[in-house]
Amino acid sequence: MSQIVYIGGFDNGQATAAAVAAALSLSHKVRTFTFSEAIGNLDVVRKAVHGAEVVTHSAGMLVLAGTKPEHVTAFNPPLLSSSSRLAWQSCIKAIRMHTPGVGLRSFRDMGSVGRFDLSAIAELIAHPVRNLGSIGTIARFDAVAEAIRLRHSGIPVTLVYTLGDEFYRLAAYEATARRGGVEVVLLPGIHDELVIRPSETLATLQLKTDFRVLPKPLPIPEGISIQ
């Protein structure tokens, strides 16, 4: 495995992608794409992910159709929805992200959430069409069906969903995913847990599965149990 490729989610800007890449780069070279970069450069993405370990967040999984990575770990990828429902749930997501004890669990999180907000605003200003124009495609995407397709092509896939995800609930899909040979992992947190607390989220994932991207164990953050 020569490199990790990280593909960010809808409206996740460069600074957000860089924060996740920093947590992933302990042992490997990391190449990052924001969602808008990825959908605007599909041929480049196809070449970059070929034979690589791929980590995606949210809508970042959409660009993997027709690709051949070594392994895919997808955090909170889209499940079937509607554009109007996604718009409403995005408001709920924003509120919860800024709520103490939910999105803001420590003083340090205030800086992370603030950087996320600024990065998202910059991303929407720079690439409004690529982001907003993709909402319909995101609403029609079924991550479980795509994961099973990849698995049948010989590509191992791990779907990671957080229990407090404001958009998606895996319960109705979980049995189908497991029958299709897809690894499913449930973690605590909100939809944007990976991008707000990347190191903590990856460390938690290591406790529950053999996270291939991180051969060197991450330090376990305080308050996370190995039980």
Can you lay out the helices and strands and say which pair or pack?
Layout: E1 3-7, H1 14-24, E2 29-33, H2 35-40, H3 42-49, E3 53-57, E4 71-75, H4 83-97, H5 107-126, H6 128-132, H7 135-139, H8 143-152, E5 157-164, H9 171-179, E6 183-190, H10 193-196, H11 198-208
Parallel strand pairs: 1-2, 1-3, 3-4, 4-5, 5-6
Written description of the protein model:
The structure is a single chain. With 227 residues, this protein is of the alpha/beta class. 46% of the residues lie in helices and 16% in strands. The chain has eleven helices and six strands. The chain has helices spanning 14-24, 35-40, 42-49, 83-97, 107-126, 128-132, 135-139, 143-152, 171-179, 193-196, 198-208, and strands at residues 3-7, 29-33, 53-57, 71-75, 157-164, 183-190. Helix 8 (143-152) runs parallel beside helix 9 (171-179). The two termini are 30 Å apart. The relative contact order is 0.17. The model is unreliable at 215-227 (pLDDT under 50).
Short description:
It contains eleven helices and six strands. It has helices spanning 14-24, 35-40, 42-49, 83-97, 107-126, 128-132, 135-139, 143-152, 171-179, 193-196, 198-208; strands spanning 3-7, 29-33, 53-57, 71-75, 157-164, 183-190. A six-stranded parallel β-sheet has the order 2-1-3-4-5-6, with helices on both faces.
